Amino acid sequence: MLLMICAIPAPAGAQEREVPYWASLREDEVYMRVGPSVDFPIEWIYRRSGLPVKVVRLNEGWRLVEDPEGTRGWVAARLLDPERAAMVRGQGTTAMRANPDPAAALRWRVEAGVVGQLGRCESRWCRFTVGQRSGWVAQDRLWGAGAP
Fold first, then answer.
1. Sheet containing 52-59: order of strands
2. Predicted TM-score (pTM) of this structure
3. Most buried of 4, 9, 77, 123, CB within 10 angstroms?
4. Sign of CA dihedral 71, 63, 47, 130
5. Which InterPro entries did the record assign (predicted)?
6. Is 6 within the bounds of a domain?
7. Residue 17's pLDDT is what?
């Protein structure tokens, strides 16, 4: 009797990407640990699905991430979403405009700390969607936009 065993590898992009890269938190509750294993203590608990993070290192199903405040720790890869997100940074509100132009019509004002879905960026402006509202925000006001 001949037994044949075939291993089907996971898609290369599913676990391995060139770092650094942007990702976002997939779940409403994500544990950041001090090392790449459940054996390490939890350093921080995130309760914000969609929060953008920068992945800076890979280690067998774990990702060393940096959050918008600069805190670094390890998160299980399965808890990260490749969907790009961004967070409004700085003080006060920023304008969300109808077009990528500082003179374009003002659609809404967005508070610092608001998280939204990031679209394409052009001419230092990025398409930004928060719930049902969408427009263009200056790239320098978005953490998670631009090159990681």
1. 42-46, 30-33, 72-76, 62-66, 52-59, 21-25, 80-81
2. 0.85
3. 77
4. positive
5. DUF1058
6. no
7. 81
User: Does residue 128 share a domain with residue 96?
Assistant: yes
- For residue 13, the surrounding DSSP H or E stretch is helix 12-15
Order the strands of the 133-138 sheet from edge to edge. Answer: 106-111, 93-97, 133-138, 125-130, 115-122, 85-88, 142-143
Token output for 36: 């790449």
Pair 78, 95 in one domain: no
HSE value, Cβ hemisphere, 13 Å, CA-based, for 43: 16
Residue 60 counted as domain residue: yes
**For range 75-99, the mean pLDDT:** 97
φ/ψ (deg, to 5) at 29: -135, 120
* Rounded Cα gap, residues 89 and 73, in angstroms: 21
Q: Is 146 left (phi over 0), alpha (psi -120 to 50) or beta?
A: left
Instruction: Determine the 3-state secondary structure of 4 from DSSP.
Output: coil
Nearest to 44 by CA among 53, 54, 52, 33: 33
Report the distance separating Cα 112 and Cα 139, nearest Å.
13
DSSP 53-83: EEEEEEETTEEEEE-TTS-EEEEEGGGEE-S
